[in-house]
């Protein structure tokens, strides 16, 4: 039976392996039946979640690294993949794994390792380049993919390249995870086998299980104060500034945020050396997202913060004209009035449930009063087109709504509520 081709993507903590797989490797394998095995050093497999979002067949191995006591689970996973009729396998190792044992496990399990790619960040601290684990990862790699080149000046890139070029291996620069060169031409061309054995260092991980919404600014302040022995952190967190969950990627002092529409329970995994668990007592306290966070919770779609204007079916109109149109249309048909003052969201799942409740409502016209504009923007993306959203907000206008009006003073609130109060349903 012919062996199944496989590639191993290795590299140190925070090097951008998952981003490289998503943006450079998988597009080159389009058309084949692919499986991905992801090992994450920690209690929750964040990289598996990111890849699963792309609709891939992903197998996750959590809690430790391939080159330690998880060999049995890894081999069982490989056997399961073979039974699925997979045409190509991508293996992403944890940042604390030596890829050598993985190579030999694959070769002995009916797979042919076409290439071991070592993904390393050019902005890594130079002292870490002599770390025994990094040296083992470099030694086992058939080629190097150097990420974050776009974050450094050209002169600095040339200087940082030098220790990698000394290995005399094919080297590619990746910008935002994308490699322009024909990297797949190396598949199956490299015959050199990595040294057997494998090194594993005594890294530690600590997982924070999160509840509620957090201030993004407070979270960033917490990360600014982290000691240098915490190299990496990643996970999913709900922040007051976004109706959608945010992925958090921290690597050697650099923090990157990205919106993700996932329902996974929020968490953060920290990886480092001799982690003091008392550090996490200073992590910010959670809150519920409510109408008081209207200004803080930014919309997902286009918005306008001007005073004295409104929007009717996407067209700019005067404030008075918009208010008159609102009252005229609400007299034509029954409507549902939802007050943000009666709502609070513990997490993204609450926002999704709120959206489903509105979808299932028999009312066509939905008057959303003081519901955070960020939440309303999510609703506008997911409600069916026959639902007409009347967005009444203190801070933002949403042109995508059927009608949007700023109600930014107490006087406006009182007048508008008195005019529509006879018909609304809470």
Q: Which helices and strands occur, and which strands form pairs?
A:
Blueprint: E1 4-10, H1 17-28, E2 34-40, H2 46-52, E3 57-62, H3 71-83, E4 88-92, H4 100-107, E5 111-121, H5 132-140, E6 143-147, H6 154-165, E7 171-173, E8 204-209, H7 216-224, E9 230-237, E10 246-251, E11 254-259, E12 267-272, E13 309-312, E14 315-318, H8 319-332, E15 335-339, H9 348-360, E16 365-369, H10 373-382, E17 388-393, E18 403-406, H11 410-420
Parallel strand pairs: 1-4, 1-5, 2-3, 2-4, 5-6, 6-7, 15-16, 16-17, 17-18
Antiparallel strand pairs: 8-12, 9-10, 9-12, 10-11, 13-14, 13-18
Average pLDDT rating: 87
Q: What is the CATH C-level name of the largest domain?
A: Alpha Beta
Question: Secondary-structure element order, as H and E?
Answer: EHEHEHEHEHEHEEHEEEEEEHEHEHEEH
- Total number of beta strands: 18
Our Rg estimate from Cα atoms comes to 26 Å
| Low-confidence runs of at least 5 consecutive residues | 66-70
Q: Give the CATH H-level superfamily of the largest domain.
A: P-loop containing nucleotide triphosphate hydrolases
Number of DSSP helices?
11
Biggest sheet strand order reads: 3-2-4-1-5-6-7
Named at the architecture level, the CATH assignment of the largest domain is 3-Layer(aba) Sandwich
Distance between the termini: 66 Å
Biggest β-sheet strands, sense, barrel:
7 strands, parallel
Count of individual domains? 3
CATH topology of the largest domain: Rossmann fold
Principal-axis shape equals: elongated
Helix content class: 25-40%
Structural class: alpha/beta
Organism: Thermocrinis ruber
Catalytic activity: GTP + H2O = GDP + phosphate + H(+)
Keywords: Chaperone, Hydrolase, Nucleotide-binding
Family: Belongs to the SIMIBI class G3E GTPase family. ZNG1 subfamily.
């Amino acid at each position: 039976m012919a062996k199944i081709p496989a590639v191993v993507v290795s590299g140190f903590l925070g090097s951008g392996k998952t981003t490289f797989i998503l943006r450079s490797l998988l597009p080159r394998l389009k058309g084949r039946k692919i499986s991905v095995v992801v090992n994450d050093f920690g209690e929750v497999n964040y990289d598996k979640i990111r890849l699963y979002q792309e609709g891939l067949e992903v197998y996750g191995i959590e809690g430790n690294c391939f080159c330690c006591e998880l060999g049995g689970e890894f081999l069982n996973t490989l056997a399961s993949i073979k039974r699925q009729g997979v045409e190509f396998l991508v293996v992403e190792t944890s940042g604390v794994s030596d890829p050598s044992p993985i190579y030999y496990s694959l070769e002995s399990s009916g797979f042919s390792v076409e290439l071991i790619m070592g993904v390393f960040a050019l902005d890594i601290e130079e002292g870490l380049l002599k770390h025994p684990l990094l040296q083992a990862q470099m030694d086992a790699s058939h080629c190097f993919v150097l990420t974050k080149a776009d974050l450094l000046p050209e002169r600095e890139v040339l200087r940082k390249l030098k220790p990698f070029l000394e290995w005399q291996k094919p080297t590619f620069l990746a910008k935002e995870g994308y490699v322009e060169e024909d990297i797949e031409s190396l598949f199956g061309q490299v015959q050199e086998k990595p040294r057997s054995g494998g090194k594993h260092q005594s890294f530690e991980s600590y997982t924070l299980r999160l509840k509620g919404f957090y201030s993004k600014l407070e979270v960033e302040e917490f990360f600014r104060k982290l000691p240098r022995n915490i190299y990496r952190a990643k996970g999913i967190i709900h922040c007051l500034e976004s109706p959608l969950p945010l992925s958090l990627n921290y690597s050697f002092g650099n923090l990157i945020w990205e919106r993700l529409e996932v329902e996974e329970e929020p968490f953060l995994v920290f990886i480092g050396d001799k982690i003091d668990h008392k550090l996490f007592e200073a992590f910010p306290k959670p809150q519920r997202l409510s109408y008081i966070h209207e200004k803080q919770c930014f919309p997902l779609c286009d918005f306008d913060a001007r005073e004295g204007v409104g929007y009717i079916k996407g067209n700019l109109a005067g404030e008075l004209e918009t208010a008159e149109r609102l009252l005229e249309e609400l007299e034509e048909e029954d409507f549902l009035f939802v007050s943000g003052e009666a709502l609070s969201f513990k997490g993204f799942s609450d926002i999704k449930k709120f959206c489903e409740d509105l979808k299932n409502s028999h009312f066509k016209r939905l008057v959303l009063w003081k519901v955070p504009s960020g939440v309303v923007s999510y609703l506008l993306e997911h409600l069916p087109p026959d639902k007409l959203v009347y967005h009444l907000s203190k801070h933002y206008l949403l042109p995508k709504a059927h009608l949007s009006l700023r109600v930014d003073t107490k006087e406006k609130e009182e007048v508008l509520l008195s005019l529509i109060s006879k018909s609304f349903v809470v």
